């Protein structure tokens, strides 16, 4: 079943990427319309597009400025750590320490934990055991590195959260498919660039390709939703609180969700130790999807469902919606209260 769903997703992603041709056509039409008004208007539009392309290229510079994730030495459980393994273990932690020392966030927000980590690494040459080295490394990382990574994780999570909000709002409000795609590309590349700079680590070459695949997946699904806007709008008319804005709301929520998945995948791949694991990432994604779903369910329970029930009761009794506390002012205050 999993393989079938994966194949179906690949088909839709391929279709979505193919629909990018419509985005190019829309940009060409926009240029022609502006140029027909005045040539300089068309030139200005081309300059704007060139600026966006340059900005996208500038945002991927982090992939060339930083080194990849350090790889810990391969140690099988129960193996005796020989001189070579012990030497590689020391090099591994020394690389992490030097990378942390260059991180301005850690120097300012976790100075004490960073100093303790440096002291611990300095004494590793006499502390490394020969037996159970794999378990010892895990314990050492949890005790000394995890507190530092939590500081960086908090910064990176805030970047992902900001990007999710801007992508969701931007794609929901934008009336043009080309603008939707540009918003997704600009914000997702900016998000990944910020994450790389927070950890001062870029993903491995294979995982770098997967980062761009994640961004392409967001673009593809936004194109698919744009291409089926009539279906989404038709379904939305039968849902409470959605109405004719069903396509915009669904596009905003879905593009935000995929941006969240892409952002957290970038965090996993840029962390300064233990290369990205598909199994652990899958567990993390399921947890994040559940939290995202809980937020959406809470919004429906606090706003959409009560308002729908009040309207239904008002219609059955013949009373106006104001009799049930459904004035526009109260609705706005409810939404503002939720936003707080």
Q: What is the count of distinct domains?
A: 3
General form: elongated
Q: Which H/E pattern describes the elements?
A: HHHHHHHHHHHHHHH
Which runs of at least 5 residues are low in confidence (pLDDT < 50)?
Answer: 320-340
Portion in beta strands? under 5%
Q: What percent of residues adopt helix (DSSP H or I)?
A: over 70%
Measured distance between first and last alpha carbons: 41 Å
Biggest sheet architecture: none
How many distinct helices? 15
CA radius of gyration: 25 Å
Structural class by SSE content: mainly alpha
Mean pLDDT: 75
Per DSSP E runs of 2 or more residues, the count of β-strands stands at 0
Describe what this molecule looks like in 3D.
This protein has helices spanning 2-18, 20-37, 39-59, 62-65, 83-101, 104-109, 111-122, 124-127, 133-173, 177-199, 205-227, 229-236, 246-270, 278-317, 328-339. The two termini are 41 Å apart. The protein is built from 15 helices and no strands. Mean pLDDT is 75; it is low at 320-340. The protein has 340 residues and is an all-alpha fold. It is elongated and about 75 Å long. The protein folds into three domains: 2-66 and 153-274, no CATH class; 83-151; 277-315 and 330-340, no CATH class. Helix 10 (177-199) runs antiparallel to helix 11.
């Amino acid at each position: 079943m999993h393989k079938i769903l994966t194949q179906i997703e690949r088909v839709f992603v391929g279709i979505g990427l193919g629909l990018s041709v419509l985005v190019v056509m829309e940009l060409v039409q926009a240029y022609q319309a502006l140029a027909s008004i005045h040539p300089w208007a068309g030139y200005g539009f081309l300059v704007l597009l060139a600026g966006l392309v340059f900005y996208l290229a500038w945002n991927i510079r982090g992939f060339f400025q930083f080194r990849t994730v350090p790889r810990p030495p391969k140690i099988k459980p129960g193996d005796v750590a020989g001189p070579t393994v012990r030497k590689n273990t020391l090099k591994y932690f020394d690389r992490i320490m030097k990378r942390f020392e260059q991180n301005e966030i850690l120097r300012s927000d976790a100075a004490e934990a960073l100093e303790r980590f440096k002291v611990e690494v300095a004494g590793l040459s006499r502390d490394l055991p020969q037996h159970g080295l794999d378990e010892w490394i895990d314990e050492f990382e949890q005790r000394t590195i995890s507190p530092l990574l939590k500081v960086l994780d908090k910064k990176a999570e805030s970047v992902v959260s900001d990007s999710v909000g801007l992508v969701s709002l931007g794609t929901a409000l934008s009336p043009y498919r080309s603008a939707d795609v540009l918003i997704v590309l600009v914000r997702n590349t900016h998000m990944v660039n910020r994450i790389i700079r927070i950890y001062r680590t870029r993903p491995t070459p294979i995982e770098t390709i997967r980062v761009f695949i994640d961004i392409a997946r967001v673009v593809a699904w936004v194109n698919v939703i744009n291409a089926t806007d009539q279906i989404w709008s038709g379904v939305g008319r039968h849902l409470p609180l959605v109405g004719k804005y069903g396509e915009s709301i669904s596009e905003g929520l879905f593009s935000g969700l995929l941006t969240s998945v892409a952002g957290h995948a970038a965090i996993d791949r840029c962390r300064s130790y233990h290369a990205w694991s598909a199994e652990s990432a899958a567990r993390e994604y399921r947890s994040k999807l559940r939290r995202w779903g809980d937020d959406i369910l809470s919004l429906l329970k606090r706003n959409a469902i009560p308002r729908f029930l009040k309207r239904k009761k008002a219609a059955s009794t013949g009373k106006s919606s104001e009799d049930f506390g459904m004035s526009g002012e109260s609705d706005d205050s409810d939404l503002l209260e939720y936003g707080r």
